[in-house]
Amino acid sequence: MALPTFNYLEDFVGRTPLVRLKRLPGHTSNTVLVKLEGNNPGGSVKDRPALSMIRHAEARGRIKPGDTLIEPTSGNTGIGLAMAATMMGYKLILVMPENSSAERVLTMRAYGAEVVLTPAALSMPGSIDEARRLEAEGVGVILDQFANPDNPLAHYESTGPEIWQDTAGTITHFVSSMGTTGTIMGTSRFLKEMNPAVQIVGVQPEPGSQIPGIRKWEDEYLPKICDFTAIDRLEHVTQAEAEETARRLAREEGILAGPSSGGALAVALKLSAQLENAVIVSIVCDRGDRYLSTGVFG
């Protein structure tokens, strides 16, 4: 008897569930759906671009197994890259702010990555500057999630088509938090090609709010992959709203997710209160167990 075909771990990146919420939307004519990206092998939406950036860099001959990769990260991209680098035979140095959650740092190290912590006061720009310094010294190669077109390409090729297929083309609104912006850029491009009427809603933090995964960048550090003309509507969310919605998502829907997912869903629920007969899709970026030490669920 011939053996069945068995898949490798990378074959399970993507095809995440699209789940309808039961309680949070209340009594409404709308359908509010969340895409559970925490079901990816590395636990977040960032598995998609991590794999895409390594594969395409290899195909171009820019890197080869055994090389050292460097990446500044606030967390999830680093974990996705740590998993992908291990699978594909690369060394990895991740540079991140020292106030990142302990779970994220420990997870990266568990995958075998070296983690370099930069001062919290410098936030992500400080980590970006340190990664650039390491690359300039010849330590390794930066894949650069902030400027690499293979980041949004991953979502154009997978996230967008999955949402379109799973909603049978009925989606009316797509809501995504904005960090690196790869998810919203790639997904919006595909959805707009399928139906220009689909509304793309980007979520940014209110001034003073610190929400992992949601960021308003200084002009000097704005990701080069970001194109605000691809976004129909920008909405802002407070840290308190993001965290409270994450808690409600866990306690009322049984979905444990992080604050950036709570922020996007808070905006999706506000939209739902203003609309009728809409099909709203919100991205749940990762799993909430990465934030247990932060007190979000305490």
From TrEMBL:
Its EC number is 2.5.1.47. It catalyses: O-acetyl-L-serine + hydrogen sulfide = L-cysteine + acetate. The lineage of its organism: Bacteria, Pseudomonadati, Pseudomonadota, Betaproteobacteria, Neisseriales. It comes from the Bacteria. NCBIfam families: cysKM (TIGR01136), cysM (TIGR01138), PRK11761.1 (NF008735). This is Cysteine synthase. InterPro entries: Cys_synth, Cys_Synth/Cystath_Beta-Synth, CysM, P-phosphate_BS, TrpB-like_PALP, TrpB-like_PALP_sf. Pathway: Amino-acid biosynthesis; L-cysteine biosynthesis; L-cysteine from L-serine: step 2/2. The keyword Transferase applies. It is an enzyme of class 2 (transferase). Belongs to the cysteine synthase/cystathionine beta-synthase family. Keywords: Amino-acid biosynthesis, Cysteine biosynthesis, Pyridoxal phosphate, Transferase. Residues 10-286 form the Tryptophan synthase beta chain-like PALP domain. Pfam families: PALP. GO terms for molecular function: cysteine synthase activity. The keyword Flavoprotein does not apply. Its cofactor is pyridoxal 5'-phosphate. It comes from Crenobacter oryzisoli.
